[in-house]
Amino acid sequence: MSTTAFLAARLDGEIVVLDPGRAALVLLDEWSAKVWEACDGQSVAELRQTVGGSQMRLRRALRRLLTEGLIRQERAGWTRVPARDA
Amino acid sequence: MSIAPPALSTRVLAIPGWTITVSAPEPLTDALANLLSGLNFADEPLPPLRLIVSEDVQWMAGESDGWPPWRLELPPGQRVGTVLGQCVAAATAVLPRRLFVHAGAVAFGGKGVVIVGGSGTGKTAMVARLVQWGGGYLSDEVALFDSEASTVVPFAVPMAIKAWTARAISGPLAGREVATEGEVRFRLPDRLQATPVPLAEVILMRPPRRRARLVSMSRAHMLMALGTHASSMIHRDRLETAFEGFSRLLRRARCSAIEGPSPGACADLLVDALRA
């Protein structure tokens, strides 16, 4: 995970996140963007209640967000890595 | 890097806001002077650029404050284009307030239309057709932006019209030919847009398809597409500024993708859409 602050451009419900450390862009569709924004320490069960969708779909989204370094697991919940608005 | 000029003619090209000292064989210096004659950086001056081209025109080197010294081979048949490209790259790398993307741009009905696409996708033909339809030429190859003002800024480097491009744009493009190299004709259209225009449309050229169509594209997908093209985002020291700037620009623009059997068919479709 990069130590440089992420930047997030919110564009019509979708989000493009820039990871300056990797010089990489990550596109989050509307639903993934909702998942990411809901990651404030909620568990998977709580996230499902917040954003809906199947558990498999939610776990896949969380796995991707984790791979991209956009969330981290803290105790039983998922927390969004801070990002500055672009 | 110190560049010691050999026995070559040295000339200073005084472009408004930019001084380029060129040591090169005379024909190439003349061509470069013509090719860069439409540029104007008076409102955002650039550091001086020093260029040297070997007598046998096999290689070139350059240096400028804020841009690492470079030296590269000049491929046969693309020497003029390569020297021009290096000048453009040097300018776009050090322009302090402007953003750039590898794209063509035309002012159509007072609005900035930017055509993004990889090399060989037909950007130049699209730009030429839009100019033939009454648009004002802003740039080809490199579109410049003022992200604070959300405008497309003129960057009047001549269009490099290859043989297939000429075939694609049925009919002549009014303008003057400023240089040639093999089959490539560097042409500056008569219809130049002299002032910045608000960015209104960003069009991504997709690979050819049998049927021409223009489809809406999300701004987020367009931002991702810009990230895969040569743009200000390739400079690591300007990455965050460029990302923020492009995000801001796209919020003001409509984004679409276009595909069709030929650049001409795509341009005609786009003109219909712009006039609608």
Could you characterize the architecture of this molecule?
- The complex is a heterodimer of chains A (86) and B (276).
- Chain A is α+β, with helices and mostly antiparallel strands and 86 residues long.
- Chain A has a single domain (6-81), classed as Winged helix-like DNA-binding domain superfamily/Winged helix DNA-binding domain (Arc Repressor Mutant, subunit A, Orthogonal Bundle).
- Chain A is built from three helices and seven strands; from the N terminus they run βββαβααβββ.
- Chain A has helices at residues 30-38, 44-51, 55-67; strands at 6-11, 14-19, 24-28, 40-42, 71-74, 77-80, 83-85.
- In chain A, the strands form two sheets. Chain A has a four-stranded mixed beta sheet with strand order 3-2-1-7. In chain A, strands 4-6-5 form a three-stranded antiparallel beta sheet.
- In chain A, a hairpin with a 4-residue loop joins strand 2 (14-19) and strand 3 (24-28).
- Chain B is an alpha+beta fold.
- Chain B folds into two domains: 9-96, no CATH class; 99-275, 3-Layer(aba) Sandwich (Rossmann fold), CATH 3.40.50.
- Helices cover 28% and strands 35% of the residues of chain B.
- Chain B is built from seven helices and 16 strands.
- In chain B, a hairpin with a 2-residue loop joins strand 12 and strand 13.
- Chain B is globular, with a radius of gyration of 18 Å.
- The N and C termini of chain B lie far apart (55 Å).
- The model of chain B has no long low-confidence stretch (mean pLDDT 92).
- The chains are: A alpha+beta (86), B alpha+beta (276).
- Chain A binds chain B through residues 7, 9, 11-12, 14-16, 18, 20, 23, 25, 27, 86, and chain B through 218-221, 223-224, 227, 233, 236, 239-240, 243-244, 247-248, 250-251.
